[in-house]
Amino acid sequence: MLHVEITETGKEGNIAVITCPYSKGYESYTKYFCKGGYTDCETLVKSNGNDSWTYTDRITMNDNTEQKKLVVTIRDLRMEDAGDYGCGIETIGRDPFTLVHLKVIKAPKPPKRTQSNPTRSSPPPPTVSTDKTGKIFSSIFE
């Protein structure tokens, strides 16, 4: 993580997976993921150097020490998530840092559902008639 820049893209409502590689020797160090650039980065999630998984709200961070990479997942992407982020390693002096440019693509709006009101043809009302004697006949099946 020697001051690298990467760009990741995700779609609104989906997830973004950000992978920040780091150099050998930093496996046991505290790692963090923050919003902003190197000098003005607000920490969103931070490991304690021992746990490989760290969670907050919509963000999951996995420190894969075997492959020497920090993998950050942001769930339920929102348009306001777009911007600069950083993956860093806490050290004495200048922290090794990867600048991440996150782009969020607006999800297409689902097509408008129009409710069509087809004219229902209802069956005609039954016809009622009488015969010469006054008996009522009903014809339901006409």
TrEMBL record:
GO terms for molecular function: transmembrane signaling receptor activity. It is found in: Membrane. It holds the Pfam family V-set. GO terms for cellular component: plasma membrane. InterPro entries: CD300_family_receptors, Ig-like_dom_sf, Ig-like_fold, Ig_sub, Ig_V-set. Keywords: Membrane, Transmembrane. Its main location: membrane. SUPFAM superfamilies: Immunoglobulin (SSF48726). The keyword Membrane applies. Residues 5-105 form the Immunoglobulin domain. Residues 107-142 are annotated as: Disordered. This is Immunoglobulin domain-containing protein.
